[in-house]
Amino acid sequence: MHPDCERILLTEEEIRLKVKELAAQISRDYADKELLVVGILKGSVIFLADLVRNISVPTCFDFMAVSSYGASSKSSGVVRILKDLDQGIEGRHVLIVEDIVDTGLTLSYLVENLKTRGPASLKICTLLDKPSRRVVDVDVHYNGFKIEDHFVVGYGLDFNGLYRNQPCIMVLKPDVYKGGKKHDSARAGIGNRP
Ligand code: 5GP
Ligand code: MG
Ligand code: MG
């Protein structure tokens, strides 16, 4: 385990099995359809890569990057699109893929935004969900794991851009994100970045 983390929350094997389960369910639900998977950069990248390789229906993917306004690490609910989709989604079956739903503010904004573009359907798939932190309701159709309110990293999830390449999901030691480790926090500021 990475020394900046206090424990492993989800092992590689647990994640692998869950991703297969989600992909099987998605493949059944979209059996006669073509799917457009929309990954939210950058946290969803590892999850999306594993998920789409287990989906059996015709699948395209594209990406969006978003950021919350303001300097606070707390989500403000006002979301700025840093990178939009490369293609239109009118009449298409869109599945948003996220790493984690926390307050729900990012996803509720994205859903409202993408709805205005006239997709045939719009659903959400997230690997992790922290329901205790929810501020706005979001309808999550596919959810890997419900977790307690810990700050987790690995398998795409970062702190200051680091740890995304770790293969399992771990609880970060509080002294790391509270600035105990100056090399990380001083270099890149807040942790909640796209
Ligand atoms: P929200 O649902 O609050 O709008 O924001 C969700 C985003 O906050 C996620 O996509 C992720 O970037 C970040 N986030 C929330 N909780 C965690 C966590 O425990 N670990 C990491 N690395 N990012 C988190
Ligand atoms: Mg994310
Ligand atoms: Mg982040």
UniProtKB/TrEMBL annotation:
Primary residence: cytoplasm
Subcellular localization, as worded in the UniProt entry: Cytoplasm
This protein's record includes keyword Protein transport: no
Superkingdom of this protein's organism: Bacteria
Entry keyword annotation includes Glycosyltransferase: yes
Top-tier EC class: transferase
Entry keywords, A to Z: Cytoplasm, Glycosyltransferase, Magnesium, Metal-binding, Nucleotide-binding, Purine salvage, Transferase
Catalytic activity: IMP + diphosphate = hypoxanthine + 5-phospho-alpha-D-ribose 1-diphosphate; GMP + diphosphate = guanine + 5-phospho-alpha-D-ribose 1-diphosphate
Cofactor(s) of this protein: Mg(2+)
One GO CC term, this protein: cytosol
Pathway(s): Purine metabolism; IMP biosynthesis via salvage pathway; IMP from hypoxanthine: step 1/1; Purine metabolism; GMP biosynthesis via salvage pathway; GMP from guanine: step 1/1
GO biological processes: GMP salvage; guanine salvage; hypoxanthine metabolic process; IMP salvage; purine ribonucleoside salvage
Domain Phosphoribosyltransferase: 12-159
InterPro entries reported in the protein's UniProt record: HGPRT, Hxn_phspho_trans, PRTase-like, PRTase_dom
E.C. numbers: 2.4.2.8
Record-linked SUPFAM superfamilies: PRTase-like
Family, per entry: Belongs to the purine/pyrimidine phosphoribosyltransferase family.
Biological role stated in the UniProt entry: Purine salvage pathway enzyme that catalyzes the transfer of the ribosyl-5-phosphate group from 5-phospho-alpha-D-ribose 1-diphosphate (PRPP) to the N9 position of the 6-oxopurines hypoxanthine and guanine to form the corresponding ribonucleotides IMP (inosine 5'-monophosphate) and GMP (guanosine 5'-monophosphate), with the release of PPi.
The protein's name in its UniProt record: Hypoxanthine phosphoribosyltransferase
Organism listed in the record: Pelotomaculum schinkii
